[in-house]
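FAQ

Q: What does a record look like?
A: Structure on top, sequence underneath. For example:
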């Protein structure tokens, strides 16, 4: 076994899982996917193989900005306060992941599985959530301004105090979602009202 320190945190891995490179280190996960590969001792711009197995991984406060995490298995992973700005999470499995206060600004989350994920106070500005599965997700106080929620499934999601201003809500599904209650509000712009009501199954007529 070998202990490595990344971003001030220690990781214990098997010797065979660590490969020294000229200016940094590459660590592989148990399925052979590259956990991260860098010359800056961070996980920024990580090159992760498709379907890398990172389920239940402890990635709190990890710097994964711009990381390629397409189809990665991050089910149940702890990504609290992680920096995933601009990361490619297309079709990634984030079911039940803890993403509280994570920075997902501009991230590609198309068709990602975020069912039951905790996104409380997450920054999802400009994120692409087209056809994402957000059923039962906790988006309480999440910032979704300018996010693309086109055809996203948000059934039973908690959107109390979420900011949806300028988000693309066309074709989204909000059935049974929780919105503002006493002392809480979900924010949208007036020009989003028609798409919002349609997502709730309400059609406006003259």
């Amino acid at each position: 076994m070998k202990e490595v320190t990344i971003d001030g945190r220690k990781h214990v891995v098997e010797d065979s899982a660590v490969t020294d490179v000229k200016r940094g280190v590459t660590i592989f996960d148990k399925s052979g996917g590259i956990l991260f590969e860098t010359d800056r001792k961070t996980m920024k711009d990580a090159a992760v193989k498709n379907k890398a197995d990172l389920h239940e991984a402890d990635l709190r406060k990890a710097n994964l900005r711009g990381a390629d995490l397409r189809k990665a298995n991050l089910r149940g992973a702890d990504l609290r306060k992680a920096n995933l700005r601009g990361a490619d999470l297309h079709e990634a499995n984030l079911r039940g992941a803890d993403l509280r206060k994570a920075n997902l600004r501009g991230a590609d989350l198309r068709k990602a599985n975020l069912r039951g994920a905790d996104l409380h106070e997450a920054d999802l500005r400009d994120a692409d959530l087209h056809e994402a599965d957000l059923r039962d997700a906790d988006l309480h106080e999440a910032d979704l301004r300018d996010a693309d929620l086109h055809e996203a499934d948000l059934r039973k999601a908690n959107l109390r105090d979420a900011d949806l201003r300028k988000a693309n809500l066309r074709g989204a599904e909000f059935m049974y979602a929780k919105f503002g209650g006493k002392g809480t509000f979900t924010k949208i712009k007036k020009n989003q009202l028609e798409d919002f009501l349609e997502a709730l199954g309400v059609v406006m007529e003259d």
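Q: Is there anything notable about this one?
A: The first strand starts at residue 2 and ends at 6.
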